[in-house]
Amino acid sequence: MVLYFKARPEVGDYTIFMGFDKFENEELIKYGFPEDVWFHVDKMSSAHVYVRLHKGQTFDNISEGLLEDCCQLVKANSIQGNKVNNIDVVYTPWSNLKKTATMDVGQVGFHNSKMVRAYFSGSYHFQLGHYPSSMCDFGVDIFL
After folding, report:
1. Torsion angle, alpha carbons of 130, 107, 24, 99, to 10
2. How far apart are CA 111 and CA 98, in angstroms?
3. Strands 109-110 and 97-98
4. Is 120 in a helix, a strand, or coil?
5. Host domain of residue 31
6. Is 94 helix (H, G, I), strand (E, B) or coil?
7. Organism's domain of life (predicted)?
């Protein structure tokens, strides 16, 4: 099941979603939209978190609040990342994700490393209270 979240109201009307496991991440990698931006804890295992931007918006002009929401979710859903203070979260447009036949399930690379941004490095304090109430789950086909 794909888990869907609404961004905090003050951030705007955005849908944030993530796969339940690495097999679902494969489907999200395969069937993304051009407006999707992918987030992951750098150099650690973590959930694949996506946000669907509004038409015409680019990943270079995502608001600080929306970046924070996505980073909180990806860190909270990293077995290693949620136990350490200092992490980096990387993000890139879905179209920049590269998947080859030799990669493990859920593993990705990038077509262009210059299109990868790092948002955060340092201590991060969670404010996830909003997310359980905004979460719903559906099969991957509602994503398509």
Report:
1. 120
2. 6
3. antiparallel
4. strand
5. 2-142
6. helix
7. Eukaryota
